[in-house]
Here is the input.
Amino acid sequence: MKLDKFMGILMGTVSFSFAAAIISLITFLIAKGLDSISWES
Amino acid sequence: MKRYREATIKVLVFVSAFLTTVIVFGILYFLVSNGISVFKDVSLKEFFLSSRWFPTYEDPEYGILALFVGTLSVTGLTLVFSIPLGFIIAVYMSEYSSRRTRELMKFVFELTAGIPSVVLGAFGLKYVSQWIMNTFPDVWTGLNIFNASLVLSILAMPYFVTFIEDALSSVPKNQREASLALGANKTRTVFKVVVPQARSGILNAIILGTNRVIGETMVVLMVSGGATMIPSSIFDPVRPLTSAIAGEMGEVELGGTHYHALFMIGVVLLVISTLFTIIAMKLKGGKEYEAG
Here is the structure.
């Protein structure tokens, strides 16, 4: 039972870390894109 | 009236299928007929076994070994990064996560699959290369195998995760239940029952993903460094087959040896891709699951 829980947490951590990294990457790309736009006419 | 309509639909479907086949074979013929002419000026041995690819020199050389090794090294390192990670995520999604989490993860991977490769290439070019140069001070260029493999892993991950997760999900539920009923814990059930049963599906997923990595052009063109050399470390720049075609095709003399050599590289890529597809089909056609 403990092993199952450990494996679940381990794999979940890996999966969520990757998902978080991807979301960060997309946010970063969007932010950089928006940053390069001059908003004042 | 109904009979006529059905006959028309049948004819239309047949014509569409026939046209598609003709177009595919037409492309194949075009590729091979253009590529094969390179052997009028270059020997088979030089083309496949020489690592000197200098098509614009006064005395041009057309050896693709360095390009081939470039493709192999980038693909190999990408697989080292993405297969274990993809497998772990797929097992988590299929066996451990709740339905809601699975949906969330699927959404993230759909987002990842939607990132254009040129955007990822630009990210690798600007930021990953800078990070590599800062982290590993002895490295002389940030555009290398390591950089290309990291960026390609992001690109390939949705394929690996989705296909492996599909393979794991299609193992019948009663197999899991039988294992649990015999007293095995969940981890043992997953790794001793589910994964072995989905083995051919997982191998199929790996081969399809590998095919995708080998054929990827934009990322390797932008971040692999573009140096025609046989690498001695993962921080060496390389020029994979696809980037040679993409980078040089626009600048060659039509009908020249260089032009034909690039088409022959296309044939080599096609052969690799076809081999992988055949292996994948064989695996898929093999004995997969035995629903009890």
In short: Chain A is about 85% helix and 0% strand.
